[in-house]
Amino acid sequence: MTDSDTDTRLSGRQQSTAEDVEAARETTTKVVENVERVIVGHREEIEHILTALLGRGHILLEDVPGVGKTMLARAVAQSFDGAFKRVQFTPDLLPTDVTGVNVYNQKTEEFEFRPGPVFANVVLGDEINRAPPKTQSALLEAMEEEQVSVDGETHEVPSPFTVIATQNTVERDRTYQLPMAELDRFMKKLALGYPKLAEENEMLDRVVGNHPIEELEATVALADLRAARETTAGVTVEKPIRSYVTRLAQHTRRHAELGASPRAGIAALRAAQGRAVLEGREYVIPDDVQTEVPVVFPHRIRTESAEATPEQVVQDTLDTVPVE
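Above: the chain sequence. Below: its structure as C-alpha cells.
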C-alpha cells in the first residue's frame, strides 16, 4: 500500500478526480465573477472567502467602517440560491434572538420551536463585537458542531452552513472583545483596507443610481456548492504536507504566549485544499499552505509584547520552518 493509499484510507473520503476539481473550480469562478460585479478590487480577499467556504470554514472580516465588509459578505451570500440571514449585533441583542426560542402554542397546548436567524446556509453577523460575549457565544455550538441546543433539545442547522462576521477596529470603548474560543472557530480573519485611487473611482461610477447589490442574482445552486465542498474534502494531502503544517503550528507555540491551536492546523489544511481547487489541482502543495497560513494563524496567536505582532510571528515561522 502506498503512502497516497494510506492517506486516502485515513481520511475516510474518496480521492477527488481531476474532473471533480475542474467542476468545483468552475463553481468558484462563477461566484468570484458574480461578487466582482459588486465589489471593486479585493480579488485576493474574495478568493480567501471562497477557499474558506470550500473548506467548511467561517470568516471574520475586520476593518474600519465603510470599506465594504458587509457588502462583500452580502455579495458572496447572494451568489448562492440558499437561505441567507443577517443579524445586526447590538448591545441589547439576546442569545435567543440568534438561536431561536420555544414558544407556547395555546391551540396545541405545546411548546413550539421558532428558529432564529442562525438557521440559514449563510449567516451574516454584522458588527459582531457590538454584542456582549453571552450573545456572541450563541454562535459557538453552531459554528463548531452545526447544531443548536435550546431548552435541552438539539436542532441541526441547514447544510451547508457558513458564518461571515464583520467587526470594526475603532470605538474599542463601545465594543466587546471576541473571546478566544470564538475567534478560534473562525477559519480566517481578513482585512480589506482602503481601495486604490482607480478602484475607488470605479466604485463611485458603479453606485451612481441603483447599487449593483440590488440586482445581484444567485449564480450557483446549493447542490453545486455541496458538491464542491465534497470535492475539496477529497483533495489529496500527503503526509509531508500534514507534517509541515504541524511543525508550523508548534513553532508558533514556542515563540508566542499563545500559539496556533490544533484547530488552526486543521483549518490551514482545509483552506489549503480549497486553494488547490481554486488552482485546478487535486492535491495540495506547500505553496497552498503558505498562502493560507497568514490569514488562518494570526488571530489565534497572542504575543507578550507589541514589538512582535502575531503577523510577525507567523511570517517568521514561515521563513524559519523548512519544507521537508
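The first helix runs from residue 3 to 11.
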